[in-house]
Amino acid sequence: MGTIEFKQVSKKYKENAGYALKDFTLQVKEGELVVIVGSSGSGKSTLLELICGFEALTSGDILIDGQSIQDQLPKDRNVSMVFQNYALLPHLTVYENIAFGMRIRKESKQQIDEKVRWAAALLELEPYLKVKPKKLSGGQRQRVALARAMVRKPKLFLMDEPLSSLDAKLRDNMSTQIKALHEKLHATMLYVTHDQIEAMTMADRLVILDQGKIQQIGSPLEIYHQPKNLFVAQFIGRPSINLFECRRTEFGILLDEAIEPRVNENLLEKNQDYKLGIRSEHIEIDAEKETHLVALLEKVEYLGSETLLHLKYKNCKFVAKNYNDKIFKVGDAIKVHFNLTKAHYFDNQQERVSGGK
Ligand code: ADP
């Protein structure tokens, strides 16, 4: 299995167009599962196409196992791709779909049979080997596509939104299976998705991409608790992080020109404006702690293990998470305490300057 390294990889599709990918630099260790997450147009497919060799780099380099792949033909790069739409051949059985690439490479019958059965056992596909794809569920089809990728024993697996056409329950199930497979095979995997929840659950490391540029690289928890900038803070986490305009005054932090929690953030410059970001689980309600403000309850979402309270204070709307079984009524006045040790402060360049301890 391989390592892959990106050295300032940039791609422009046309001379006078903007960069689809700019200075993408990343080292993926052997056996690591790195998830690249970004919204549509952020450059995810471009990255995969550059690795596969379907597109040429504008500048920079990509190395697999320490060797530049730029002069290698796509078929020689030894990477296997699993797509969103499975790309199975409908007239062939599951067995023949898994065996297809090996037959083209003229591997021996015995070798093919061994590998098909090995992959089918790992992915619990043995009962379906004689069946054609149309008889299978979406999850089973995706497992066939994974098996087909596995039998190549590639240096690198590339997964292009492999779960996005499955329904929510199957998606959970498949993401667990892919993660388990990754652990069993100790495979190096680059996994691309627009879905931040999928990204958080799958990744050893996450790469957040926006408009062709890496915004942050880190473990899911690092990124959640220590977002580098406002974009990352808003992109990761549901419900989305709450944001307030704030000003560091002589006395503490002034929120939305109204309240003044007496917390000193010494790292913030006095009389400067910041955006304060705080996650819903760090806004406590009816707590026996100091009340920072009293907000109007506009909407309640009971999710079972927790309740989301949509609150309004002056012009600020925000969401607090509550973990007890209390029943709330829309229109209630709710006492709110901000756990400000968990708040993040962003400057006018949208960089995080402080907070999130
Ligand atoms: P994603 O996969 O994250 O949706 P893409 O890599 O497809 O993003 O696109 C990144 C940027 O590159 C977008 O602005 C897109 O319009 C542009 N782009 C992608 N493919 C091409 C192409 N073949 N020709 C010109 N521009 C392209």
From TrEMBL:
SMART domains (alphabetical): AAA
GO MF entry, a single one: ATP binding
InterPro entries: AAA+_ATPase, ABC_transporter-like_ATP-bd, ABC_transporter-like_CS, ABC_transpr_MalK-like, ABC_transpr_MalK/UgpC-like, Mo/tungstate-bd_C_term_dom, NA-bd_OB-fold, P-loop_NTPase
GO cellular component: ATP-binding cassette (ABC) transporter complex, substrate-binding subunit-containing
Pfam families assigned to the protein according to its UniProt record, in alphabetical order: ABC_tran (PF00005), TOBE_2 (PF08402)
UniProtKB keywords: ATP-binding, Cell membrane, Membrane, Nucleotide-binding, Translocase, Transport
Domain ABC transporter residues, every copy: 4-236
Superkingdom per UniProt: Bacteria
One GO term (biological process): carbohydrate transport
This protein's name: ABC transporter ATP-binding protein
Source species: Candidatus Cellulosilyticum pullistercoris
